[in-house]
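Q: Hi! Curious about what Holliday junction branch migration complex subunit RuvB looks like structurally. Here's the sequence.
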Amino acid sequence: MNWDDTADESAAERLVDSGADREDQAVEAALRPKDLGEFIGQEKVREQLDLVLRAARARGATADHVLLSGAPGLGKTTLSMIIAAEMNAPIRITSGPAIQHAGDLAAILSSLQEGEVLFLDEIHRMSRPAEEMLYMAMEDFRVDVIVGKGPGATAIPLELPPFTLVGATTRAGLLPPPLRDRFGFTAHMEFYEPLELERVIHRSANLLDVEIEADGAAEIAGRSRGTPRIANRLLRRVRDYAQVKADGLITRDIAEAALAVYEVDARGLDRLDRGVLEALLKLFGGGPVGLSTLAVAVGEERETVEEVAEPFLVREGLLARTPRGRVATPAAWAHLGLTPPGSAATGNGQQDLFGT
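A: Let's find out. The predicted structure is below.
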């Protein structure tokens, strides 16, 4: 097992993890909007994408290749399916890790129908040989299939029907410029505002036949870390609590009680997040402290702390990464109800925080 696998397994157990498990995939399929009009949030992306698709339909042409970047759970897969539906085209779904050889990609490309949408999730994790084959396929709708080995190897050109590639990535910076430049439309998915998540929750509750009051939806939205997938997952867990402990109606009090059981606090932090902050504050006085030392104090792998807990803590302004180590911000002390020592408020820790 490699370190990435360890981090992934730890994240998979978290209610506020933005990755999708099998239950999420099944529920998302039922809740997924079918067209751009139903899609909530990402206003600019929806407006721009609507123009791209309308223009392609008016020309009777295949839509340009589309690159969607952003954190997990924001709707990249959903948008790919909407693109196919808007273009009245079939969709083929695969992922970068599944394409480790150029032959894997050639087999997929050679079987595409004209106008078909190929959704390639985590495109930055595709192998380099396959990536280089994709350059020609995207630009010229052609691939060269190598037959044989060594000096006798022969390249056989294979013409492809026009298709639309929709690439999705959580780490756009890892895409090489030649690949990124071949996309006709690039969009970055932003985290959702609480009011947008409330709309997502009300829509999902209606489809799941769940009764929910406005203040209950607001409470769930506020703990969903700006991510629709997490909002829908929390909604399902609060629904379970309401059915077992109450009359099935989700109110603010019911949502608060349910999420307290699942250890998701008012800002969306869970046990791991709070464990990292508590270790940083109580054991190390707010820092600076090295990542490895912090991970040992929490009892987690270094990669788990760095890849699973830290991104949200940094985005919330509760933790800062500095050259000397991790430093807690004043907001972290306030969130846990702790009083910072004088050195954390005015001394070296604060100097590190502001990079002085």
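A: A fun detail: Residues 43 and 267 are 24 Å apart (CA to CA).
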